[in-house]
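Handout, page 2. Input:
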Amino acid sequence: MKLLLASQSPRRKELLSSLGFDFEVVKIDCEEILPDGIEIREAAAYLSELKAKAFRNLTGDEVLLTADTVVAAEGQILGKPKDEDDARQMLRLLSGKTHQVYTGITIKSADKTFTETDVADVELDEMTDDEINYYIQNYKPFDKAGSYGIQEWLGMAKITRLNGSFYTIMGLPTHLVYKILNEI
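Output:
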């Protein structure tokens, strides 16, 4: 099996490698637009499948892995921030509350496609404007859904409770990936 990871995320690369898989990183050009009215719990899987469908046809021994993570709070999806103000607004929304992180994965071979979503609840302590500004200035969370990375300062200093997989929050539900790849 030749595993192809369609992600530029250094976190996903690190996690897949830590699972013991050899893989090649590939790029997919795909406009990630959610349809109107999609349920929040379906959004990550939808985007993951969208990426998989946008990739070229696979040969017999190739397996493609795509993933997408969305953060949801108060009935809205928080994607990657556009700029510092957007990141600041997202972090204020998450401050002192519990939110959900959904990571959808699609594993596709020449003849089969598996799509799964995992969800985790994350509780954050209150954050002051100074703490939010410190995080944005020092960690530049512009490539992260919800404007934060659990493995960084904010995760260490402000997450008070998790219900679900740490790795789902990091961007790859490793337990699902491992299970599905070993079943193929």
